[in-house]
Amino acid sequence: xxxxxxxxxxxxxxxxxxxxxxxxxxxxxxxxxxxxxxxxxxxxxxxxxxxxxxxxxxxxxxxxxxxxxxxxxxxxxxxxxxxxxxxxxxxxxxxxxxxxxxxxxxxxxxxxxxxxxxxxxxxxxxxxxxxxxxxxxxxxxxxxxxxxxxxxxxxxxxxxxxxxxxxxxxxxxxxxxxxxxxxxxxxxxxxxxxxxxxxxxxxxxxxxxxxxxxxxxxxxxxxxxxxxxxxxxxxxxxxxxxxxxxxxxxxxxxxxxxxxxxxxxxxxxxxxxxxxxxxxxxxxxxxxxxxxxxxxxxxxxxxxxxxxxxxxxxxxxxxxxxxxxxxxxxxxxxxxxxxxxxxxxxxxxxxxxxxxxxxxxxxxxxxxxxxxxxxxxxxxxxxxxxxxxxxxxxxxxxxxxxxxxxxxxxxxxxxxxxxxxxxxxxxxxxxxxxxxxxxxxxxxxxxxxxxxxxxxxxxxxxxxxxxxxxxxxxxxxxxxxxxxxxxxxxxxxxxxxxxxxxxxxx
Length: 506
Fold this sequence. Notes:
Layout: E1 4-9, H1 15-24, E2 29-33, E3 44-49, E4 75-78, H2 80-88, E5 92-105, E6 124-135, E7 140-144, E8 153-156, E9 161-164, H3 176-187, H4 195-210, E10 214-219, H5 223-236, E11 240-246, H6 254-264, E12 269-273, H7 275-282, H8 288-307, E13 313-317, H9 322-328, H10 346-349, E14 352-354, H11 362-371, H12 376-379, H13 399-418, E15 427-441, E16 444-457, E17 465-466, H14 471-484, E18 488-493
Helix pairs in contact: 4-5, 4-11, 5-11, 7-8, 13-14
């Protein structure tokens, strides 16, 4: 029976980061909305309360009944979570007139407390809050302070409950991983959740769940669907049929390269070329959300048509990963973009859904792929959106624009590999702008297209910084594209970070 830590999400931007840190400590965890704690789940070993954009004093702040959790499980409140513990127990949380944000150092550490075993005096932590606890309830005992925050950490007497007003999950907290590891020790976690154990358990569960049933899976050429295919193939073999739809918006020669890679992996793959259908339906469409919906619906239509050629299909496989699941359970209800896996195909096709990766973050999916022995060129690929180049061509889509972008992007990515830069960035891509500018080639005046080079560094795509690629590399890429791609006379580089920008342009 798999042990787990439950993280109750009060809306913090770093909730997913808490989960990633717990996973890095070889312990399985799940993120749930702050008011959805699972009742009578014997696998739960401990609970973490996340931060929040709210003040506990706000009328609309997220507040939970913790009576069924406190003293039943080890509990750790982080930032808002800690303040909510104090507030809901009769303490006082107030605005201090200025935000406590940035680096601070812990002092007066009670190193006999199990949360701070082997945590050194003066260690740096990261603060991020507008309120602070100004009065603790009588049974709360301070176990660490900073120069400005007397109750930087506390323990509730007589129960296994702790709170910290800093963020142990962020990089700038020097011994944050040690503090989280100490909490897992308090919880009695075995820390045996690894890629190998995930594969073994998942394949066993898939065999039991699917039996002799047949499954179809939509392949995109990306990491998530490819790892899903290999896991399903390992469990049910010939009863898996994969369908790879070329909507005409893939990278240059992508269809042929990926089909060959899949065949070499022993997968049963049906390849479908559907360029004309997608180009026809996208003609004249410029709105990015409408483009996404047309591409998504067109993909479903083609996939559905191919699926009906097969017999006795009972299951639909999808490469849904954990961030997709978390977004679909969002406590804010905000939709950043449409066209991801959760909630897509099953209603139309009347098939049961199997999603073997729905518990994993992207980096965990890659590690599972490595453990499965998959080709590096598949599992180390940069993320590629479902709508493909359709959202990297700003404005309307035509076959000629696709050709221009494919050629330019192929030069960019090829040179990234040659210069040893590809694996140093999270994602690199090329964008075709709907503007033309004047240029000079030889003795001739030109009036042609502009392409944008984009490269970002990140760990999970929740935030991203623009990659500071070498000037001589960018010069080389620019010259190659302008000299070799007919229709382009200007190349620019995007130096925007996320937030406020997104990684993709549409």
